Amino acid sequence: MNTTSLSEVTAAASRQPTPGTGSADIGTLLDDGPYTGMQKIVVLLAALSIVLDGFDGQLIGFAIPLMIKEWGITREAFAPAVAAGLIGMGIGSACAGLFADRFGRRMAVIASVLVFGSATCAIGLAPDAATVAALRFVAGLGIGGALPSATTMTAEFTPARRRTLAVTATIVCVPLGGMLAGLFASHVLPLYGWRTLFFVGGSLPIGLGLLLLATLPESPRFLARRPQRWGELSALLGRMGRPMPEGVRYTDALEQKSERQAGFRALFAPGYGRDTLAVWVAFFMCLTAVYSAFSWLPTMLLAEGLPLALAGSGLTAYNLGGVIGALLCALAMTRWGSFWPLLICCAGGAASAFAMQAVDVEQNSRLLIFGFGVHGLFVNAVQSTLYALCAFIYPTGVRATGTASALAFGRLGAILSAFVGATVITRGGAQGYLTLLGTVMVLALVALVVVRRHIPRRASGMPPHTHNPHTDKEIR
């Protein structure tokens, strides 16, 4: 990353804008300017934080079988520890925006990474499930806060023409991190046990957090809102290939216009309530499926008699399929719109889950692992691209509120999966578990059929992610 001397930064930060020196719109500067190497490095750092977010978030799924065995407890007794982490994620997601708006996007990312890294490290010292629950709650605060903070940082450093791909690639880093966690766990667990898994897994984000402290700049949009930091913003824009004259005044016309629009109630304004409820249900069902896999898939496979290493590879395959599926579905949506790609992926997720019920676990264990890879491809394709659908459904004034509320409602499904997953595995085994995964994807399909504002086909003459006039009407 390009750097400036301490004296240059100090001088730039000390400059105060003066009246009459002209103004510049930060949105225009970012969207119409070049995509420099410095900006790409910021996006890479944000993506790395999400890779480790997915990595640490899924370590518990690989460790649960050994924890249960060591402490002699049931799956149901461990469910509160799983739920505590998911509750923490929900709170972290909800509070991340408030923290980022008050203290900056930079500190939101760094704080999130350091929190979940430190708490994950501490889990390695836990003497019982109650302690794990408390630490997973704290880790969840950081894990939940990292994704919205890092995607905001990515969006605010990326020109509009590259933003959709950059944000999608950042979101895909969650299953990528989970896949790396599976590979890591398959080598560490048999040799060193679950405690070492958390010691090392927590140390990595702590190291990244220190790197971010030294290198990650503040978001230019955040700086533009604070006149006392306009000198710092001018120095940053210079590093981004956008040199500005001394004393320039900064505005952010698009965002300031958005802030004047109505909030949560607008999601249920005439013409929007049906889509809002349908998208909420889709998020709920998808996150129930995703976190049933993240938390309980290795446990289920181990209960079916598979060796520990092979049981862990099921979640690794699930995440690998998720990375591929999310990218393929995003590409399909840019050409054919969102309706058919999302419905096909929902149907594929349901069909793959029900088809695996016919697989003999003992005789065709690797075919079952492959099946979970296919299932993960379809489910994560839907989950990752639902964010793009939200961005299309809602106009600028309520877009962030619409997406955040859908994700928050979806987190309830994730929390439910902590208890339902344990109960289903105990009472129904693999057959019950697969029935759960298939059923929720059928319900997600039904919800997405109900949505009226799908992203249109490119052939319709309307570019992807462009709204029709009715959708673009301001909601007041």
TrEMBL record:
<feature type="compositionally biased region" description="Polar residues">
    <location>
        <begin position="1"/>
        <end position="21"/>
    </location>
</feature>
<dbReference type="GO" id="GO:0046943">
    <property type="term" value="F:carboxylic acid transmembrane transporter activity"/>
</dbReference>
<dbReference type="Pfam" id="PF07690">
    <property type="entry name" value="MFS_1"/>
</dbReference>
<keyword id="KW-0472">Membrane</keyword>
<dbReference type="InterPro" id="IPR036259">
    <property type="entry name" value="MFS_trans_sf"/>
</dbReference>
<feature type="transmembrane region" description="Helical">
    <location>
        <begin position="309"/>
        <end position="332"/>
    </location>
</feature>
<feature type="transmembrane region" description="Helical">
    <location>
        <begin position="339"/>
        <end position="356"/>
    </location>
</feature>
<feature type="transmembrane region" description="Helical">
    <location>
        <begin position="432"/>
        <end position="451"/>
    </location>
</feature>
<feature type="transmembrane region" description="Helical">
    <location>
        <begin position="77"/>
        <end position="100"/>
    </location>
</feature>
<keyword id="KW-0812">Transmembrane</keyword>
<feature type="domain" description="Major facilitator superfamily (MFS) profile">
    <location>
        <begin position="42"/>
        <end position="456"/>
    </location>
</feature>
<feature type="transmembrane region" description="Helical">
    <location>
        <begin position="107"/>
        <end position="127"/>
    </location>
</feature>
<feature type="transmembrane region" description="Helical">
    <location>
        <begin position="368"/>
        <end position="394"/>
    </location>
</feature>
<dbReference type="GO" id="GO:0005886">
    <property type="term" value="C:plasma membrane"/>
</dbReference>
<feature type="transmembrane region" description="Helical">
    <location>
        <begin position="133"/>
        <end position="153"/>
    </location>
</feature>
<feature type="transmembrane region" description="Helical">
    <location>
        <begin position="197"/>
        <end position="216"/>
    </location>
</feature>
<feature type="transmembrane region" description="Helical">
    <location>
        <begin position="277"/>
        <end position="297"/>
    </location>
</feature>
<protein>
    <submittedName>
        <fullName>MFS transporter</fullName>
    </submittedName>
</protein>
<feature type="region of interest" description="Disordered">
    <location>
        <begin position="1"/>
        <end position="25"/>
    </location>
</feature>
<keyword id="KW-1133">Transmembrane helix</keyword>
<dbReference type="InterPro" id="IPR020846">
    <property type="entry name" value="MFS_dom"/>
</dbReference>
<feature type="transmembrane region" description="Helical">
    <location>
        <begin position="406"/>
        <end position="426"/>
    </location>
</feature>
<dbReference type="InterPro" id="IPR011701">
    <property type="entry name" value="MFS"/>
</dbReference>
<feature type="transmembrane region" description="Helical">
    <location>
        <begin position="41"/>
        <end position="65"/>
    </location>
</feature>
<dbReference type="InterPro" id="IPR005829">
    <property type="entry name" value="Sugar_transporter_CS"/>
</dbReference>
<feature type="transmembrane region" description="Helical">
    <location>
        <begin position="165"/>
        <end position="185"/>
    </location>
</feature>
